[in-house]
Design brief:
200 residues; alpha/beta; eight-stranded parallel β-sheet; six-stranded parallel β-sheet; 5 helices; 18 strands; globular; disordered N terminus
């Protein structure tokens, strides 16, 4: 009788331990992934480049991290997770490549500040506001996307773009090339003037 009881106890303990092992595997932490739009922007469908996507995008939720991300030492994509307010001029600086190449095999220059979040179906879930007395755009082929900027913008570089943006302020351009290559889509608006000011 004691032998049977001992055998049954061993079987029950073994089954219990096996169940725990399976549960541990099922509860393993999933590998983190980037939002679909950011991953697509960087990888262009090439899954071999997804590691580069992690190091090439800054997802920021502090003022300090935001300022570093837009600096010449930052990254080509800056993704905000909240509103940011600065009392002094801020500068989008440096020339960055987006990891893609054009039809001639040349690296593509691009910079992007994304003032929004979205779900896996690309539906925008939050839009954020960036506030500063002045945003100076020195990075070529840069864009502000899907949020609000409160303040004036001074553009020194070519191909500056607004995508689904509200600018509550003026946009000044320092060169003919800067103003002639500026674009904004139909969902963007600027409350102030858009003009050339070479003396800036």
């Amino acid at each position: 009788m004691r032998i049977k009881l001992t055998i049954m106890t061993i079987i029950l303990i073994t089954a219990f331990l096996s169940g725990c092992a399976n549960n541990d595997n099922n509860n393993a932490t999933p590998t983190p992934t980037l939002p679909p739009d950011i991953t697509d922007d960087i990888t262009d469908g090439d899954t071999n480049k997804e590691v580069d996507a992690v190091t090439s995008a800054s997802i920021v939720d502090t003022e300090e991290d935001f300022l570093y991300a837009i600096s010449a030492n930052g990254t080509w994509i800056i993704c905000a997770l909240k509103d940011f307010t600065f009392d002094e001029e801020i500068v989008l600086d440096g020339e960055f490549m987006n990891g893609k190449q054009d039809d001639d095999g040349k690296d593509i220059v691009q910079r992007k500040i994304a003032l929004y979040t979205q779900d896996e179906n690309r539906n925008v879930t939050n839009k954020f506001t960036l506030t500063a007395p002045l945003l100076k755009v020195n990075s070529p082929n840069a864009s502000l996307q899907r949020g609000t900027f409160k303040g004036d913008i001074l553009v020194t570089a070519w191909n500056f773009e607004l995508v689904d943006m509200v600018v509550e302020g003026n946009i000044y351009f320092t060169t003919e090339d800067a103003i002639n290559t500026f674009t904004m889509d139909e969902t963007s608006s600027v409350t102030g003037v858009q003009e050339l000011q070479k003396d800036q």
